[in-house]
């Protein structure tokens, strides 16, 4: 376990919510699932232990029945569409993006249509009509074309802006993506979470999304997830909700 004193700022903020008789809405998204792995088993074990619902962003093209069969009995898990192949099509000097206009729009949309249909067929009632763009990036020009395929919402990163489709975003990323890979220091992630809670306390009603990537977690990242669940799962000021609660 980390030094649990690191978590005091979160406890203090949640006490403020509790004193005001309010509850913060949180949801949990984990990206890049393709097949059953020990890391996925570890994540599911934590979700079950603390009764936290998980939205799993699954890469449609390479996935198949093995993952669907593994998840079939997991009542806390929903399946969402994570692009098509999670392949980058941008030039080397720009931010990675699969769902951009670096290819013909019709090609990109056809992949998103196929991804929706494949995961819906594999997951049935566990499937959620939510698109999670790889690297949290999608060109705005694609958004108006998603609803005819069945998509009801998109999930990227940051406070939601006006869009022609519902946005159910994430706001907390526990990973360090540059330099030495692995989980960010707990104090840094907790600081961001407290900041998001303060924004909500002041009247912003958007649910707070926590984003993880089980396949690349180190001990620090796993410890963060476990401690976050320990600190919040039974807290009077926190509601961990399935992402389906936010899709209208």
From TrEMBL:
Gene3D superfamilies: Glycoside hydrolase/deacetylase. InterPro entries: CE4_u4-like, Glyco_hydro/deAcase_b/a-brl. SUPFAM superfamilies: Glycoside hydrolase/deacetylase. GO terms for biological process: carbohydrate metabolic process. This is Polysaccharide deacetylase family protein.
């Amino acid at each position: 376990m980390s030094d649990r004193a690191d978590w005091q700022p979160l406890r203090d903020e949640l006490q403020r919510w509790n004193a005001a008789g309010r509850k913060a809405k949180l949801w949990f998204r984990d990206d890049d699932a393709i097949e059953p792995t020990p890391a996925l088993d570890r994540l599911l074990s934590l979700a079950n232990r603390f009764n936290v619902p998980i939205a799993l962003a699954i890469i449609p093209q390479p996935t198949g029945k093995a993952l669907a069969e593994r998840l079939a009995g997991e009542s806390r898990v929903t399946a969402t569409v994570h692009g098509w192949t999670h392949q980058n099509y941008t030039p080397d000097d720009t931010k990675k993006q699969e769902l951009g206009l670096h290819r013909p729009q019709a090609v990109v949309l056809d992949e998103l249509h196929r991804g929706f249909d494949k995961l819906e067929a594999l997951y049935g009632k566990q499937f959620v009509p939510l698109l999670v763009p790889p690297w949290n990036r999608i060109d705005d020009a694609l958004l108006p074309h998603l609803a005819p395929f069945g998509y009801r919402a998109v999930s990227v990163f940051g406070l939601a802006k006006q869009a022609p489709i519902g946005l159910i975003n994430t706001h907390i990323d526990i990973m360090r993506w540059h330099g030495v890979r692995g989980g960010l220091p707990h104090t840094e992630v907790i600081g961001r979470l407290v900041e998001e809670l303060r924004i909500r306390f002041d009247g912003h009603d958007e649910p707070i999304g926590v984003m993880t990537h089980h396949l690349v977690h180190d001990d620090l990242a796993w410890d963060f997830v476990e401690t976050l669940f320990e600190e919040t799962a039974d807290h009077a000021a926190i509601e961990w909700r399935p992402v389906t609660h936010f899709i209208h």
